[in-house]
Amino acid sequence: MAKPLPLRVFDRQAGQLFREFMDDRPTTYESKPRRSLHQWLESQPLYDWLIAAYQYSPRSKRQIEPFIAKNGIDMSEFKPVAYRSFAEFFDREFKPGVRTFPTAPEEMGAFAEARYFAWERLAKGQRFPVKGHSLSAEHILGSAERAQVFAGGPVLLARLAPVDYHHVHYPDDGATLEHARLGGRLWTVNWHALRSKPDILFRNERQVNVLDTRNFGRLGFVEVGALSVGRIVQVHPLDRPFERGAEKSAFRFGGSAIVVFGEAGAWRPAEDLLERTEQGVETLVRLGEVLALRA
Questions:
Q1: What are the structural domain ranges in the chain?
Q2: Taking the CB of residue 34, how many other CB atoms lie within 10 A of it?
Q3: What DSSP string describes 140-157?
Q4: Is the peptide bond between 129 and the residue preceding it cis, with omega within 30 degrees of 0?
Q5: Tell me, what DSSP letter sits at residue 99?
Q6: Per-residue pLDDT tens digits for 221-249
Q7: For 99-131, what is each residue's pLDDT tens digit?
Q8: How far apart are the C-alpha atoms of 273 and 280, rounded to whole Å?
Q9: 3-state DSSP call for residue 12?
Q10: Least confident of 41-50, 115-124, 155-164, 223-232
């Protein structure tokens, strides 16, 4: 049995480092997930649907208050709603104006409230903190042709913990050029697991979008489902233009991840993200905070 391992995260807003375990089974954090029978069972689609049935039931409502207290969630930031189930609570939305996106066109706002890794360019043989083929644009995007435009470009990897706001927003104005649904299994996406099972990001169910943005060129935008997150719901119609900060999609239940590939020379991730990635430390970034700058 592999050991549960904490995740090192730097809270950008608070200016401090903390160690995090997501609110889930210990097997979620194992450094060698292939050796966990629990996690193998949890990776099956049937398990995901059984969990969904319970989380939508009125009985699951009793989980809400203990979850809020344990994780210190500031409910004043969210719309006042009488939640009928834990699923409804998980899908909670911010009040208007609680989070804002930058108005400067050269600044890319965070598309999710999440823990981020960032690389200035995806080099062949990239190994730290994720084994190289975990960040292969060809494998994650599903084809060499789709990935070609992102060769040598910047990469952002965002991990959403169960405690987080699970809605995804567009980082800029633009339009969707291409989309596809790929994969099917549901392994955890924390980076300890990625190092031991490096094919997670192209085995898990994922929504692949190629976005043509006004200020940052084309983006390979990939939403990855994880344990108990088999539903990635596209909120904004893919055949319509989108605006910076508008809601794009939502995850249902548990943790999840987003990988964003950029064109070489189009933009550069924020310096603090690059520095902490070199140290193997994720950076907690709030929705709309500056993630990257146009080159």
A1: 1-295
A2: 12
A3: HHS-HHHHGGGTT--EEE
A4: yes
A5: S
A6: 999 876 544 578 899 999 999 999 999 99
A7: 999 999 999 999 999 999 999 987 665 544 443
A8: 10
A9: coil
A10: 41-50
Q: Is 164 helix (H, G, I), strand (E, B) or coil?
A: coil
Q: How do beta strands 282-285 and 7-11 pair? A: parallel
Confidence band of 183 (pLDDT split at 50, 70, 90) = low
Percent of the chain with pLDDT over 70: 73
Q: Are residues 266 and 239 in contact, defined by beta-carbon separation less than 8 angstroms?
A: no
Sequence-ordered list of residues with C-beta below 8 angstroms from that of 58, at least 6 positions apart, any chain: 84, 85
H or E element at residue 29: none
> By three-state DSSP, how is residue 253 classified?
coil
Distance of CA 183 to the CA centre of its chain: 16
- Tell me the pLDDT tens digit for each residue of 76-93: 999 999 999 998 999 999
The neighbouring-strand residues paired with 269 are 292
Residues 44-67: what's their mean pLDDT?
80
Amino acid in position 247: E
Compute φ and ψ for 225, nearest 5 degrees.
-75, 155
DSSP for 35-65 reads G-HHHHHHTSHHHHHHHHHHHTSGGGGGGHH
Is the distance from CB of 29 to CB of 190 less than 8 angstroms?
yes
Question: CB burial class (10 A; 0-12, 13-18, 19+) of residue 88?
Answer: middle
DSSP 8-class letter at 189: -
SS3 18: strand
Q: Residue 163 and residue 234: Cα distance in Å, rounded?
A: 21
- Distance from first CA to last CA of the chain, Å, rounded? 46
Query: Would you state the torsion angle of the CA atoms of residues 270, 156, 195, 7, taken in this order, to the nearest 10 degrees?
Result: 60
Percent of the chain residues past pLDDT 90, beyond the cut = 55
CA dist list (Å): 22 to 6, 8, 53, 216: 9, 12, 22, 32
Cα 164 to chain centroid distance, Å, stands at 10
